[in-house]
TrEMBL record:
Keywords carried by this UniProt record: Repressor, Stress response, Transcription, Transcription regulation
Gene name as annotated: hrcA
Function: Negative regulator of class I heat shock genes (grpE-dnaK-dnaJ and groELS operons). Prevents heat-shock induction of these operons.
UniProt-recorded name of the protein: Heat-inducible transcription repressor HrcA
Family of the protein in this entry: Belongs to the HrcA family.
Length: 351
């Protein structure tokens, strides 16, 4: 069931009970009992009524009960629903803002030292472990490899010509398999020498355009002979062939050529999408528990945000790792503000 469906199934009473359970858990880290909730709810309800609502929420998978007699905790799915659909984001407190700005006010030309100070400040402010990824490398690629971590999560390993190595996490196109990822890596490695990621993507896009032109010409010839219908205006073109038995040898050869071009286009489009996803950055992201394959420790969460250079290109990221009961409403804007500030400072530097 989607998050929208789950939220729509919650009436005002169950929504408030759920929100109070999550907020109390995030503050205390302890299971929340029905008697505790009755004192906090805006609507006067008996402990028995609150228990029934909590049981319904548990049946929906939004709450867990560590022991039969204990209170309830939000499940991983419940935390995700709360973070995505119900959480209120705080403004960055002036003291936190000042502490972050102070680390970046130094004119130290060493980017590594600057980001080390940012990491220390983030850890101190949030009381969590900080994560800072250095600006992305722009040297030519020597080797590229895609590794499937989960159906919706993959790792790309980039080895640059100067020996630098980077690992990046991305969401692969739907339906990709470990073997298709290996094939994509092999294809890219065959043409990667001396090219950056952006140059690789540009080269592939040019090949796709050339193949589309060739496909359009061949298909047009079959259409003119009345043997086919062609819809080549879409990103997913279709060729409908009529009366295959009436095809002449030359037309059958054209049809085989069209099939090869279709296959080639499909593969190259997939690989371009891999490259775009590899380069693409996203806003603040929250990974809870097993959602994050790099930090899938029981009860852990990661809040991470990319930062950009002067060309508005994602070059690195900052984040905080902590328990699932992080104060997300406070941590998310701190991470976001830090990422924006780092981007502005690095954009103002030469070289």
């Amino acid at each position: 069931m989607s998050q929208e469906s789950l939220l729509s199934e919650l009436n005002d009473r169950s929504r408030e009970v759920f929100r109070r359970v999550v907020e109390t858990y995030l503050q205390t880290g302890e299971p929340v009992g029905s008697r505790t909730l009755t004192r906090a709810l805006s609507e006067r309800l008996s402990a028995a009524t609150v228990r029934n609502v909590m049981q319904d929420l548990e049946f929906m998978g939004l709450l867990d009960s560590p022991h039969i007699s204990a209170g309830r905790l939000p499940s991983q799915m419940g935390l995700r629903l709360f973070v995505d659909g119900m959480m209120e984001i705080d403004a960055v407190a002036p003291t936190d803002r000042a502490a972050i700005e102070q680390t970046l006010g130094n004119d130290d030309p060493d980017t590594g030292l600057l980001l080390d100070r940012v990491s220390t400040a983030l850890s101190s402010i949030t009381h969590g472990a900080s994560l800072v990824l250095m600006p992305k490398h722009e040297a030519p690629i020597r080797h590229i490899e895609f590794v499937s971590l989960a159906p919706d999560r993959a790792l790309v390993v980039l080895v640059f010509a100067d020996g630098h190595v980077e690992n990046r996490i991305f969401t692969p196109p739907p339906g990709q398999t470990p073997s298709s990822m290996r094939e994509a890596g092999n294809f890219l490695n065959a043409m990667a020498e001396g090219r950056t990621l952006a140059e690789l993507r540009s080269n592939l896009s040019r090949q796709i355009t050339e193949r589309r032109r060739e496909l359009d010409v061949l298909a047009a010839e079959l259409v003119e002979s009345g043997l086919a219908l062609w819809n080549g205006e879409t990103t997913d073109p279709r060729l409908i062939v009529r009366g295959r038995a009436n095809l002449l040898d030359s037309e059958a050869a054209d049809l085989d050529r069209i099939r090869v071009l279709f296959d080639d286009l499909e593969r190259k489009r997939d690989i371009v999408e891999f490259l775009e996803l590899t380069e693409k950055g996203e806003g603040v992201r929250i990974f809870i528990g097993s959602e994050n394959k790099l930090f899938s420790l029981s009860g852990s969460a990661l809040v991470v945000s990319p930062y950009m250079n002067a060309d508005r290109k994602i070059v690195g990221a900052v984040g905080v790792i902590g328990p699932t009961r992080l104060n997300y409403g406070r941590i998310v804007p701190i991470v976001d503000y830090t990422a924006q500030l780092v981007g502005r400072v690095l954009s103002g530097r030469k070289g």
